[in-house]
Design goal:
This protein is 37% helix and 18% strand. It is α/β, with parallel strands linked by helices.
Length: 339
């Protein structure tokens, strides 16, 4: 097999949408004679300064559900683009893009890493303060999980493609959110924000807390736990740390909030323990109805994020006093133990 169903779905969507959706191949993931495209699909205004939402999946091939959720969101959103006037009006002022399969050969071969054995989410030139041993990234050998790649080598093709695709969209945006879809940790869906490299607060802490408040007040019964990733563990080489550090948005009066959706895969294993005997069983919902439920589970979050970038005055473009209040509340909520 020289493709994957996820790429077939993307290519089918490209045909259906025609000129209503922009598409490009950022690069190709290669393994010998096999090469698979890394697609980016985008909607809305091309104005560089416009607010932006990006949805990304498939960084870890073994966590196939991340790519599948991203494609499910792409399909739902693109259907709204076809018939919903409110969505069409919103896209006159904002931009939404998708990179659903960052690591397509990893998806094909059911591996966390890319074809060269590198964990893309440990691949950036970012050093952590006190990384978790092994899990936080290492340079010993591609035979072991969480391999970062050789020191001083360029980042992997897939990493560079994703970074380039995101930077093209957010570089001049006055407000940007990205959501990277993963699975494999805990009994609850989490929304992680930086840093991954350190337990120190990151510069957009007030923005992160303001977003959490918006989510809590709009959907008080939501099931996400919003927190800094480093509160769970710290890692070398996080691509979103790297993107944020290079964006330097706050210094330029621009706001950027990178989020990671970490779907709680232990929920699926708890209800069906025998799936642990499959290589992908610890990271994906394998029972049909659970898989379908997961694919539709995050539509409300996407809708909230689109409305959030379209209405920055509600949470992002607020007074300095309000931002300071959010910063203080965030410090107390997430970093009180570090005092």
């Amino acid at each position: 097999m020289n493709t994957i169903p996820e790429i077939q779905q993307i290519e089918s969507r490209i045909e259906i949408m025609g000129s209503a959706m922009r598409s490009e191949v950022l690069d190709y993931s290669r393994d010998g004679d096999l090469q698979l495209p890394i697609y980016k699909l985008s909607f809305g205004t091309t104005a560089p300064e416009a607010p932006v939402l990006g949805l990304i999946g498939g960084v870890h091939g073994l966590e196939r559900i991340g790519a599948q959720v991203t494609i499910a969101l792409l399909n739902s959103f693109s259907e709204l683009v076809r018939w919903d006037r409110q969505t069409q009006r919103t896209l006159q002022e904002v931009r939404v893009f998708f990179i659903p399969t960052v690591n397509p050969i990893g998806i094909l071969k059911k591996t966390r890493s890319n074809p060269r054995g590198v964990d893309l989410m440990r691949n950036a030139p970012v050093e952590a303060d006190r990384p978790a041993r092994w899990l936080g990234g290492h340079r010993y050998s591609a035979k072991f999980p969480w391999y970062r790649g050789k020191e001083n080598e360029p980042m992997e093709i897939e990493s560079q493609a994703m970074i380039r695709g995101v930077q093209q969209e957010i570089a001049n945006s006055k407000l940007a959110i990205t959501l990277d879809c993963h699975s494999g940790f805990g009994l609850q869906d989490r929304l992680w924000f930086p840093w991954a490299k350190t337990q120190k607060p990151f510069p957009e802490l007030a923005l992160a807390h303001s977003f959490k408040t918006l989510l809590d007040e709009t959907y008080p019964h939501h099931f996400y736990k919003v927190e800094p990733q480093a509160g769970t563990y710290t890692t070398h080489g996080d691509l979103w740390d790297y993107l944020y550090m290079n964006h330097q948005g706050e210094a330029q009066g621009k706001q950027y909030l990178p989020l990671c959706l970490e779907m709680g895969s232990w929920m699926w294993v708890k209800k069906h323990p025998s799936q642990l005997f499959r290589s992908d069983g610890a990271f994906n919902p394998l029972i049909g109805h659970r898989h379908q439920r997961t694919l539709r589970r995050h539509n409300t979050l996407m809708e909230l994020m689109i409305r959030a970038i379209a209405n920055p005055q509600a949470w992002a473009c607020v007074s300095k006093q309000q931002l300071e209040e959010h910063r203080m509340k965030a410090q107390e909520l997430w970093y009180a133990e570090n005092k």
